[in-house]
Specification:
homodimer; alpha+beta; Arc Repressor Mutant, subunit A; about 20% strand; DNA-binding
Amino acid sequence: MTKSRKRAAPASSRESAVGQGRRIPCEKCPLRALPVLRKFTPEEVEFVSNLKSGELNVEAGTNILLQGTNSAHLYTVLAGWAFRYKMLADGRRQILNFALPSDFLGLQGAVANEMQHSIEALTDMTLCIFPRERLWELYTHYPSLSYDVTWIAARSEQYLDESLVNIGRRGAMERMAYLLLHMYVRAEKLGLAKGSAVQFPFTQQHVADTLGMSLVHANKTLKRLTASKTMRWKDRTFELLDRDGLLAIAGYEMPPEHVRPFI
Amino acid sequence: MTKSRKRAAPASSRESAVGQGRRIPCEKCPLRALPVLRKFTPEEVEFVSNLKSGELNVEAGTNILLQGTNSAHLYTVLAGWAFRYKMLADGRRQILNFALPSDFLGLQGAVANEMQHSIEALTDMTLCIFPRERLWELYTHYPSLSYDVTWIAARSEQYLDESLVNIGRRGAMERMAYLLLHMYVRAEKLGLAKGSAVQFPFTQQHVADTLGMSLVHANKTLKRLTASKTMRWKDRTFELLDRDGLLAIAGYEMPPEHVRPFI
DNA sequence: CGACTTGTTGATGTACATCAAGGTACGTGG
DNA sequence: CCACGTACCTTGATGTACATCAACAAGTCG
């Protein structure tokens, strides 16, 4: 054993001060207009709207879902960022993925019974709540939506495949370049970019835990990457300066990203 | 860049000498009796049987699915072992997962359009073929089966999560112990174990590519692991000698494995 | 103000990769 | 039969990408 990242105390994860917001009807959901998201029929939207049991506001640092428990809910991210992670007994942490607006959370728990991972809010967030036991209704009433759920699961599998190659077979610079570019592109697609800059709410520690390296090494890798002048990342603001240059360092062809469902 | 595993020539992957076997009706499928697999209703079985368009026999080394192409089929493994992998441009390889009898292959391609990974047969295999374009029928006619497909996708996500923690945050011994135990358990559940021994059809190179390490290091790690007397692996035969001991080295709680669907 | 979070940097150690060589078992065609 | 190739495993010597340890700087917060 070696591999860095022990933290004795659960430094983040404050007490989960949550709140119930008022309900925006799905018909007026601001996300639904995004061009990357598949158009729903009015019936589909109405069904989903009816499935939605409420909204949840959580503060940054809150654990939305917890490894080892079974959640009664599924969530859609309306606003804010989160990350999915697993902890080992001795405190090592691996971040599996980040969640952005329009992402769907908790399916594994709905299907398994017990969560095998945790999810923590990176920023203040707004989530749509769907009761887990009504997922079955969706399957019996709306094949199109069931297909979407499968689609979503298959796509996260793709992301994970990418991460596995990334961590298993590539050096620190390649990994880092790939991750930053990946997160930039995702944010950009959601209209979160201003010019070529995005507000990244995560820290170097999060990046290190995503890429399976130590904080110190992540820091030094970022320095080297900055020296390449393909990007800049200071005070939570990420700027993409040379997309092709960064892509070249990542040594990668980005897989095609399609229009996707949003439940 | 570093991170091992370049191979100039595609050493394995012979020419895909395949063959069409005769058709076993799903009602008589030998796998369906396995206690780990969920019981299907007669209607479900009949529907699946009708969906099945044929059987495929492939030799060890054949590429069943290829990164960058779009396959017209979905497969269920009836017999034999395979592995899912991705290659980088310079020849580095990352194995993502292994496929055993009862596993479902090709969903990502069905849902995306273009495969983002390849699958290669480790042994001679028999596969059930399902035409991809009829997947939609399944969604419209059988919510229960659609739910199963989602279930399967969510479960592979869980496997990938595990692998990510494994590669990202654990040392060579831990990784190795975990992988071997994991593969043993999977094989055992399918009735492939004799006493406490299983025939593993993969080589040390495959293990190395799964764990994101070099062949040499995998070999040395295996030596050290053998010295612990918790297992033995010689001439393709793996023997589990001390389950708890190996589990302790893996430093892990195995997640609960449930009864699962088999399409 | 201290306590804490985040970033930064240098010194040192080690887990890993790379290189190189050889060893066994299997096949092939002469 | 042997010579030859090839697939797989093994082992030692050497190099390096990473982790660990330690310290400090800047910003924020109660």
